[in-house]
Design goal:
The protein has 282 residues and is α/β, with parallel strands linked by helices. It has one domain: TIM Barrel (Alpha-Beta Barrel). An 8-stranded parallel beta barrel has the order 1-2-5-6-7-8-9-12, surrounded by 4 helices. Strands 3-4 form a two-stranded antiparallel sheet. A hairpin with a 5-residue loop joins β10 and β11. α5 packs parallel to α6 and α8 runs parallel beside α9.
Length: 282
């Protein structure tokens, strides 16, 4: 198992620059806050050495995480309880996880989510048959309610994470609106990816006003002028007015996420994003 110093070095982060990732720097700058990270951003590092990667996440100053790797009843190759212990050992909280829950596997996935101590179980995207027609979206909403009820019985909240496609007009309707209207707020919440809703030409503030309390989870992700994801502070989104309506939205946890890190290494990006976001919204 690599040490944290070895991990950062092999990840392309010079050891002389390690203070950039320490909590002391953030505290000295007056921006020590509770923040979350979607582990999809550092997926390669998590695959290589999850223990070292989580140690680096904690050292950067993050408080909670969202998992993005679950297969064969394992989180990053670990049994749910073992992954939970590793996260806790690093002083982090495991809040949520993305995985491909469906009617065939939901009982197993929910059981594993409960063993891992998840608070939220999030479906990150929809297969073609669930999003190719309005009828498909209506059936999807029906399933979300069923999955949400199963999750509730296990002390978990079921959620859905958007991309752009759900905001593209279909048969004269906006599919995302169908999902909101036809799911029970007691059973289903939404993880709003701020970059992708804005890239789709929609205003998150409008959705907060018309659907208050429905967006308990957020993904903070910036957009370049080409509408590609960017390191926060290096893109075009003004997050301050959005964050100001967090209470209206019902937001409880938020996660920094970057799908592709092109201008920095993933660990540089999450540190820069965290610092810039905290300075801009708090």
């Amino acid at each position: 198992m690599a040490t944290r110093r070895e991990f950062l070095k092999t990840a392309g982060i010079a050891t002389v620059a390690m203070p950039f990732f320490t909590e002391e720097l953030f505290a000295a700058s007056g921006i020590k806050r509770k923040t979350g990270l979607a582990l999809y951003t550092i997926r390669d590092a998590m695959t290589k050495d999850p223990a070292a990667a989580l140690a680096a996440v904690a050292a950067t100053g993050f408080s909670w995480i969202e998992a993005a790797d679950y297969s064969e009843r394992m989180f990053y190759g670990m049994k749910p309880a073992d992954f939970r212990r590793l996260v806790s050992k690093n002083g982090l909280k495991l809040i949520s996880s993305h995985n491909g829950i469906n009617a065939e596997n939901d009982d197993t996935i929910i059981a594993d989510a409960a063993e891992a101590g998840l608070r939220y179980l999030v479906k990150p995207s929809l297969p073609h048959e669930m999003c190719s027609s309005l009828d498909g979206f209506k059936k999807t909403a029906e399933y979300f309610n069923k999955a949400g009820e199963k999750c509730r019985k296990n002390g978990i909240r079921f959620g859905f994470h958007n991309h752009q496609i759900e905001f593209n007009e279909l048969e004269g309707k906006i599919p995302y609106d169908i999902l909101l209207a036809e799911t029970d707020p007691e059973l289903v919440t939404f993880e709003l990816d701020l970059a992708w809703i804005i890239a789709a030409g929609k205003d998150p503030l409008t959705y907060f006003k018309t659907n208050p309390g429905r967006f308990e989870l957020w993904h903070f992700k910036d957009l370049s002028t080409e509408k590609q994801d960017a390191t926060i502070g290096e893109g075009t989104i003004n997050f301050a007015p959005i964050y100001a309506k967090a209470e209206t939205a019902g937001m409880k946890y938020w996660f920094i996420e970057q799908d592709s890190c092109n201008t920095h290494t993933p660990f540089e990006s999450i540190a820069i994003s965290r610092a810039n976001l905290l300075k801009s919204v708090l």
